[in-house]
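Minimal example, chain plus xanthosine-5'-monophosphate.
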Amino acid sequence: MKINVRTFIRQSTKSIQKEVGTGTALCATSGGVDSMACAFLAHRALGKNLIALFIDDGLMREQEPQTVTKLLKKHGIRTVTVRAAQDFSRALKGKEDPEIMRKAFRDTFYKTLGKAVRKYHASHLIQGTIAADIKETKGKIKSQHNVLSQIGISPKKYGLRIIEPLKTLYKPGVRKVAQALGLSKSVYQRMPFPGPGLATRVVGEVTPQRVRIVRKATVIVERALKKYKPFQAFAVLLHDRATGIKKGSRQFGNIIVIRSVDSRDALTATATKIPFAVLDSIQRSIYRQIPEVTKVLYDISPKPPSTIEYI
Ligand code: XMP
């Protein structure tokens, strides 16, 4: 859908102001382009009556909590961080099935938000759900964590009144809005990062130790592939393990997959054609920096039949 960005921003700003009135709204902000665009839009509408809520779930990429909150504050947005890593870790413990894990994540996420809504006496929650999230949840592909209405859950259960200003837009439209709102190129061109964070990149049980492995591998993959401008590039930790040799002896270690895809709107995708030398250099860095890994693979699957993430 072609959008007139200025008109979209003007109308959305007015509609947020009308809906929230003199109340206070919280905007759950993870640092991805959708939630950042949403926070900037809501800030334009509400000024100091908007609180950007950053939930540190312990599932973020390296340095993400610091970078995101610094950026929000730099733009004059009132920002609150909730440290909830232990709550998420407890909720995900022992859950290996993807949908059960997603549900546990979602429940913890909304409980945390609900608490913040009450603490700050907020009347509304503004969130960056986009059209693709709704479409894929509706199509029963994955229950995206943020599409409560589509999965038959009433926001009232969590004491929330929800506004989703970006829900008619797909990723390219969101990027244009983010750019027009003054977000820097490094933010509006950012790769999408899923709501449940690195938990979608750990197949099997999501433990803090397994998240640490995938986080380290993610830094290596993202850095090496940045210049190819993929839609998304990241590392995945598999459930399976593989025998390898470390320091001259046998080790039954972990398997990391390098995943990089080109896409327009995340509804379909193809694997990025990465030169072998680049893949080779990534695998070397992974073996060198992450002793727990004994095998590195490159995933060539398109979507469909695959999906972008692993769970
Ligand atoms: P899949 O794996 O379904 O991913 O091909 C499509 C796009 O959605 C992102 N993704 C999510 N985003 N909550 C989100 O906010 C989620 O639960 C979720 N699951 C997948 C994924 O990174 C890709 O951009």
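Residues 133, 136, 141-142, 144-146, 192, 194-196, 200, 232, 266, 303, 307-309 surround xanthosine-5'-monophosphate (CB under 6 Å). Residues 98-119 form the longest helix (22 residues).
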